[in-house]
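Researcher: I'd like a structural prediction for the single chain below. Treat it as a standalone chain; there are no partners to consider.
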Amino acid sequence: MKFIKRKYRYKIGRKKATGLARIYIQNAIDLAAAKFMPDTFFSVTVMDKRITLKSVATGDRKVIRSKNNASIVELTNKEINTFCGDAEYVIVTLRRGKIVICLHTQDENRQRRESNFVRMLKQGVITTASLFSGIGALAYQLYKGFNNLGIRAQMQYANEIDPIAAEINVNFNPMWEYAGYNAVMVCDDIEKMDLTDLPVDVGFVEIEIPCVGHSTLTSKIKKDTRHPLAGKLFMRTIEAVRKMNAASLLIECTPGLRGSDTLDCVIDQLEKLGYSIETINLKGSDFGDFEHRKRFCLFAVSKGVRHLFPNLNGIESYFSNAEKKFGSIMDTVSPDDKSWKPYEHVKARNDMSNLGYKNVLINSETKNIPAILSSYASPKAGQPFVQHPTYPNLQRMLSVREHARIRKLPSTMIEALCSLAKGTLLGRNRSGKTLAHRYMGNSVSPTPWQKVIEHMFSGFKMFDEFNLVA
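Model: Treating it as a single chain, here is the predicted structure.
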């Protein structure tokens, strides 16, 4: 009969007395078919990525005969222990007269990403990637967080489906100045795009899961996995994470993601891929930002390097009362400028108590404002308006420049967004103010995300175990 190659996953055991790794193969029928009969001899060769057992006429190793006269192969010593490391499983491949043992792909990937991670940080560098990147506003704040620690973030990859957002991102976001070798921006649908462009063994991946399926404004019949556009995006996202084999990753979304089926599936898959996970809600104004914008944050690290990171909830030590006033970023607008309007339809909402919305007025002394929505370009109650300095019946909307300053975007991106709003960017001949506000409204309050990086990676400025340098 033709011999059929067999492959089995085996869990690595540990000797109770010594703690040494133990590989115990007891597929008696398969061992016999591979010519590993009881009391026959075999040789063992241990290399970096495989252990090879060969059936030989005589030698030091012998196939164990069980009480039932079945074949058993056992391997355990210091060399086997070093090969296994902290892996959980091996793959045992049986051929005629030979057995090859390798670490399970998942364990091998995890150990490789962890060793690469430590090697990078020894050099004060970390490779990064961004999914659902938009204009890269969140990615920029994370980049600044690394920079504040003296760690150079090298962008390797970004994905965004909107072509205008992608162009602003790659052309005007300074995080690309130190992009890694063969870095790429891919403007494509993540559910259909070619995953071969994804880098491998990335140090850090940032994922802005589209929040439309978890928003309080979304109807129940379209919530979570039932959303027709965003409900299944997490499936391809996990596939991309698996391909990139990141050592650490961050997921940002609306707080509505917490408790969802989407999050349950994401956490389940990340844990199976060998990640340790923490979650928290972050509020912009807690960190001294203007907005009372609350966002969900998931931070995951490969479990073999978890001990190098502090607990995520320790970020509360970065809370700040050093609030700025709106006047510090306010445009100078002439009292007779056409942007001042009565906005009667907005004021009318004040009389509709059942809706719960108000006409929110701010001035130069204002310290905090509601979260600015992606739909801000359409004036509505509940969103901030600047009060006219002398005529109380007039108010104006935030300018694109003011909105960008609230986001603490770099000057290159501010000018690009202002040009987009004026219709003078990317060959456009009409105003893109709605787009500019949408791109920024889909983003985050800046400071919490800088502080997430500064907190979670703080140990790499002083950690001595690996002689890491920042």
